[in-house]
Design brief:
The structure holds two protein chains of two kinds. Chain A is mostly helical. Chain A has four helices and no strands. In chain A, 16% of the residues are buried. Chain B is mainly alpha-helical. Chain B has twelve helices and no strands. The longest helix of chain B is centred in the C-terminal third of the chain and has 33 residues, at 240-272. Chain B starts with a helix and ends in a 30-residue tail after the last helix. The chains are: A mainly alpha, B mainly alpha. Chain A binds chain B through residues 1-3, 5-7, 9-15, 20, 24-26, 31, 34-35, 38-39, 42-43, 46, 50, 52, 55-60, 63-65, and chain B through 31, 35, 129, 161-162, 165-166, 169-170, 173, 176-177, 180, 185-189, 191-193, 195-197, 199-200, 202-204, 206-208, 210-211, 215, 277-278, 291, 293-297.
C-alpha cells in the first residue's frame, strides 16, 4: 500500500515511482458498464440494490470482489 | 429530505478540508441523521412529524446531535479527523435538509421551531417508493443535480487516485490499513470503495428518476414547493417572523452552550486527541479547512 510518508516534503504520491505511475486499474468502459448494470438492477430490484449498503459497495464488489471470488473458486477446483 | 445530494456533498466537503478530516468520518456523519431512523419514518403514522419534529426523532437533524456525536467519538477514539469529519458531515446533512417542507430543528433543544425554505415537499407519507418518485418529480431532483455539478466543477480532483493516496489515506491511515490487511482488499478495491459513494449517488439518482418518469409516471413538477400532488406537511403554524425570532434566539443559546462546553471539557478533549503524522492543524477555521503542505515524518501538530 502506498502510505509510506514521502521523504522529500512534496505533496504527492507516497508510492515508489513504479507503483505511482501505474495506470488506473479500470477504464472508463468498466465504470460505465457497471453503472448501467447497477441502474438496471436497481430498477428491477429496488429494495435490494438501491440502499446504503449495497449501493456504495456494488462497484467494488463487481470489479474486484467477483473476480477474486472467481479466482478462489478456480484455485480450489 | 435530500437524496443523492448527501452523497455528492461529501466529496465537495472533503476537497475543502483535505487532510484534516477523515472521509469515512464525513460519510458516517452524513448518514447519521437518517441511519437509524429512516425505516421507522416510513412506518410512522405521521412521517414528517416523526422524522423532523419533537416529539419524534427530529433531534437527529439538529446541529447539537452532530456536536454530541462528534464529542463522543473524540472521547472514545481520540481521533480528531474522525470527530471533525463526523461533525462536518452531520452539519452538512442538517443544512441540506432545510430545503424540504418539513425542515429541521436546527438549534434543538434551544429551539424546536422547524426551519425550512420549502423548496420541495417532504413526501415520506407516500412510502419509500412514493417518496422517491415525488422527490425526483420536484426540485429535489434538481437539487441533487446541482450538487453533482458543484462536485464535478469544484471537487472532481478529489476523485483521483493521486488525491486518494496523498490525502484520503494519510488522513485516516488506520482504517484504510485495516481494510487492506484484515479484509485483504487490494488498493484497487479500496479506491473503488472511496468512489463508491459517488457511484451510488449517481446510480440512485438515475434509477429513481427513471422510475418516476416511466414506471409510476408521476407528473414532473420542478417548481418551488412541488410536487403539488403531495399533501403539504408544514410542521409549524408559526409566522415567518416568529420562526426567525425563535430560531435566532435558539442560535444564540446554542452558541453560548458550545462556548461553555468548550471551556469546561471540550478544549481538554481536543488537546487529548491526536492527529495522524501527516496532519498539521492551524488555529480557528484553519484547524478544519484548507489543504496543508506535506510534512516530513514526525512533524505532526500538537
Amino acid at each position: 500500500m502506498c502510505w509510506v510518508p514521502s521523504r522529500n516534503g512534496r505533496l504527492g504520491s507516497r508510492c515508489a515511482p513504479e507503483v505511482a505511475e501505474r495506470p488506473e486499474p479500470f477504464g472508463a468502459g468498466a465504470y460505465v458498464a457497471v453503472f448501467v448494470g447497477y441502474v438496471a438492477l436497481g430498477l428491477a430490484f429496488k429494495s435490494v440494490f438501491l440502499n446504503w449498503v449495497v449501493g456504495p459497495l456494488f462497484m467494488a464488489g463487481v470489479l474486484v470482489g467477483l473476480p477474486a471470488l472467481w479466482r478462489a473458486v478456480r484455485q480450489r477446483s | 429530505m435530500s437524496w443523492a445530494a448527501h452523497e455528492f456533498e461529501n466529496y465537495f466537503i472533503q476537497r475543502h478540508v483535505g487532510l484534516k478530516a477523515s472521509f469515512l468520518g464525513i460519510v458516517v456523519g452524513t448518514f447519521a441523521p437518517d441511519l437509524f431512523t429512516k425505516s421507522l419514518v416510513y412506518a410512522s403514522d405521521d412521517p414528517a412529524q416523526f422524522h423532523r419534529g419533537w416529539p419524534g426523532v427530529g433531534f437527529t437533524h439538529s446541529l447539537m446531535f452532530g456536536v454530541v456525536f462528534a464529542t463522543v467519538v473524540l472521547a472514545l477514539t481520540r481521533s480528531r479527523p474522525w470527530a471533525v469529519g463526523i461533525l462536518i458531515g452531520q452539519w452538512a446533512h442538517v443544512l441540506t435538509d432545510v430545503a424540504d417542507s418539513a425542515g429541521v430543528m436546527v438549534f434543538f433543544p434551544f429551539s424546536t421551531e422547524p426551519v425550512t425554505i420549502s423548496m420541495w415537499q417532504h413526501a415520506a407519507a407516500e412510502g419509500r417508493y412514493g417518496d422517491a418518485a415525488a422527490y425526483y418529480s420536484s426540485l429535489g431532483g434538481v437539487w441533487d443535480l446541482f450538487w453533482l455539478v458543484v462536485m464535478l466543477v469544484f471537487a472532481r480532483s478529489a476523485l483521483s487516485r493521486t488525491y486518494w493516496r496523498a490525502t484520503i489515506v494519510p488522513a485516516d491511515p488506520g482504517v484504510w490499513a485495516w481494510l487492506n490487511r484484515r479484509l485483504r482488499i487490494p488498493e484497487a478495491g479500496l479506491l473503488l470503495l472511496y468512489r463508491g459513494l459517488l457511484f451510488y449517488g449517481l446510480g440512485r439518482m438515475v434509477a429513481w428518476f427513471l422510475y418516476a418518469r416511466f414506471e409510476v409516471r408521476t407528473p414532473f413538477q420542478p417548481f418551488w414547493g412541488g410536487p403539488d400532488y403531495v399533501d403539504g406537511n408544514d410542521l409549524s403554524d408559526a409566522g415567518a417572523w416568529e420562526v426567525i425570532w425563535r430560531t435566532a434566539l435558539g442560535g444564540v443559546l446554542f452558541t453560548l452552550f458550545l462556548v461553555l462546553c468548550w471551556g469546561l471539557f471540550g478544549r481538554r478533549l481536543w488537546n487529548r486527541g491526536a492527529d495522524p503524522p501527516m496532519v498539521r492543524r492551524g488555529s480557528g477555521l484553519r484547524s478544519v479547512f484548507g489543504e496543508e503542505r506535506d510534512l516530513e515524518p514526525g512533524q505532526g501538530s500538537a
